[in-house]
Predict the 3D structure of the following.
Amino acid sequence: MSALCACGMMAPIPGWGMADRKQPGKFSREAIWYTTTPRGVLCGICPNACTLKPGEVSTCHNRINIGNKLYSIAYGNPCAVHVDPIEKKPLLHFLPQSRTFSIATAGCNFACLNCQNWQISQTSPDKTTNIELMPDAVVANCLKNDCTSIAYTYSEPISFYEYMFDTARIARNAGLKNVMVSNGYINPEPLNALIPYLDAANIDLKVFDQDLYLKLTGGKMQPVLDTLVTLQKSKVWLEITNLVVPSWSDDLAMIGRMCRWLADHGFREVPLHFSRFTPLHKLTQLPVTPLNTLLKAREAALKEGLKYVYIGNVPGKGFEDTICPACGKAVVERRGFSILTNHIQNGRCAFCHTAVAGIWNT
Ligand code: SF4
């Protein structure tokens, strides 16, 4: 996949293969979270706990042991750069209609069978077409493109943690917001270090079953639940996405259990997006998610007391309108990534004056 440059002034960098990345260089940074063990360097960022001998590349394709030090190898070297509406992340209760400068490098710490961005997530930075965009240049281009925030997105930002972390700190000082779109598969210490610089996050909760989680993603469910709880208790604005994959995550009883867990753990005000699956990557034999399944999932979530439940990837039907949980009126009507009407005033429904959870203004 080619790098797309939103600012139109940076050309893709030819070459820069794995041999270049196996020594400290332009796009390598020593990792922040790792320890040295007799078996190699142990990465502390995510529960995969990669232990790498010299020359070995991590599960997320984004880290290498060079001389018994752990290096991130796509620092300042994104393969995707775009300006997006914030609604695309999806974040529907966070600075509506604002523009977000979105970046990704190759790599992911999951291996989801249904990955929608597998061309960049399930590969390594030497195999994608990249540009040079160091953290200060990301911030400069974000400002230049009239964006309110920087989104770390598309692939898995946890795999390019150092690039995200350094960029987020500079962005915060420049008055910009930071948004993470992630699988949530991160250890508590690096998450807690990042939280002070984050303003919003959308976290995927892939399926509500430990065995299926492992089979579908290659990762465990509990660390993701822990991340959700940590973010929900922080000041970071949180929304959750559940991609409803036929025969994997579409069991309505299981969806009901997931929604009950969310309701019981303080997530009633957290928007939940049920997203329609389209056949991709290793699940091309499956059909798209039937609309009826998505409608029933939404019904189950509302029944469990979740207040803001959306259906994504079904355009033109009003399934992403925000409904006031008190009076039932549509307070924000959307079509695609555009807003048709907005009846939220000072964070409240203009019809009945009930507070609508969200960050509605800068
Ligand atoms: S972030 Fe990457 S290198 Fe670190 S433990 Fe996770 S998969 Fe391994």
